Amino acid sequence: MKKLIHKAQSRGFADHGWLQANHSFSFANWYNPHRLHFGALRVLNDDVIAPNMGFGTHPHDNMEIITIPLQGILKHSDNMNHNRQTVVPSEVQVMSAGTGIQHSEINGSLNEHLKLFQIWIIPNKRNVTPSYQQKVFNEGDRKGRLQTLVTSYEDTDSESLKIHQDVKLSRIDLVEGESFNYVLKTEKHGVYVMSISGKCEVEGEILETRDAIGLSELDAFKIISKTNCELLFIEVPMLKI
């Protein structure tokens, strides 16, 4: 088994005034040669965006982009005819940038901060036709059990959003004292686990809010909640980049 620990305070941080951004992996002006990616996971940004502010129209290509709102109202626009599309914390948004997209992501509230995770996954197919999806995921469906959010187009799970990579993004909410066994897809995958909130034990390591652990070269692992906790799992092929 391989294991890496990323404590919340070890992340890169950028204060842009309107944007408070924490970077789990090298991004923009924050560079750490030891934190370039975790397998096919390239970016995990934990952003807080001021009211009525956001990312103006900008391009992407050949990247799978996943946005998970945690608080507030996200307004999305792009050149695929989505104009000020609303995405809220009960939903997840995915985009396949493929041959190229232009999009903007704005806080749709005039008085509430927007909090979200933005995740970039390196695709297994390049120059695909760009696409956009979003879906509601009920909070109750992850109480004590795994709720799958995103998988590959080749995966048979019909309830998840789809991207061009053999991944599994999922969430679970555990109450204090509850445990859960996570089983990996294959021995070629690894899992990046972030504590969204609360405190838990994973493979002998204590994770508190926004701490993360990356695990690979194992079949399964056990999580024990020390308090009520919310966890995000990003399971990816362990690509060598």
Automatic annotation (TrEMBL):
Pirin N-terminal domain residues: 11-121
Organism from which the protein derives: Winogradskyella endarachnes
UniProt GO MF annotations: metal ion binding
Keywords linked to the UniProt accession: Iron, Metal-binding
CDD domains recorded: cupin_Yhhw_N
Record domain Quercetin 2,3-dioxygenase C-terminal cupin: where: 150-236
Coiled coil: none
Similarity comment: Belongs to the pirin family.
Binding site for Fe cation: H58, H60, H103, E105
Cofactor note: Binds 1 Fe cation per subunit.
Protein name: Pirin family protein
Cofactor or coenzyme needed: Fe cation
